[in-house]
Amino acid sequence: MSEPYSVPVTVRGYETDVQGHLNQAVYLNYAEHARWSLLQAAGITQSGLISQGVGPVALETTIRYRRELLAGDEVTVSCAFAWGGGKTFTIQQTIAKADGTVAAEITAVGGLLDLKERKLVARPQEVFRELAKDPALFGLQDV
Q1: Do strands 88-97 and 5-10 pair parallel, antiparallel, or not at all (unpaired)?
Q2: Per-residue model confidence as pLDDT tens digits over 65-100
Q3: Is 44's pLDDT higher than 70?
Q4: Which of 27, 28, 60, 133 is the most buried (most CB within 10 A)?
Q5: Torsion of the alpha carbons at 43, 35, 92 and 65, rounded to the nearest 10
Q6: The domain spanning residue 110 has which CATH number?
Q7: Quick check: is 142 in a domain?
Q8: 77 in any annotated domain
């Protein structure tokens, strides 16, 4: 698994529900923001993916809510990729408060979709390695 990449986020008031908690759907937005930030930091853009005829897809997402988040809370959202030998990969994410308290744990299974064939790419890590300027951010070493 790669070392976690993290981005800071401040919980905004309009993201909360009637109890004042961060709305459950927004956790997914924060996770997605961290994933795209990692891609960008590694030098992979949406246009770069499209030019290669692929796009990332979410196949399964599980969120474990641990502690509430309120408007104004400062959090970090981490993101670490784990690669297997097949068509999918796993992304482990943690949303943690400034004091280190874990607010949520997110596990996602994803893949890269061949945009013409509408099928998953056989070895997505090879595409990431090829496209990334810094594949180490994905736990992939240059070969």
Answers
A1: unpaired
A2: 999 999 999 999 999 999 988 999 999 999 999 999
A3: yes
A4: 27
A5: 160
A6: 3.10.129.10
A7: no
A8: yes
